[in-house]
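An example makes the point: we let one protein speak, the chain in one-letter code, the fold tokenised, and here it is:
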Amino acid sequence: MASSTFYIVAMVVGVVCGLGCVALARSKNRNAVGFFCLGLLLGVIGLIIALFIPTREAVPPAQTAGTQGPSG
């Protein structure tokens, strides 16, 4: 009984840490899925890593190759 409770608590903590990493990743323009996995697997350590990762600048949408835009 005690071991099954440990696994349930560990899974809940992992999911909560994963969701916290997703929130941090979105605020820093990072990949949310990758950071969810980081938080799920590493728990609180993943949250600390996500907290100290620098913010990535927003990338403007790329123009299609060979086009000049509206001015010609």
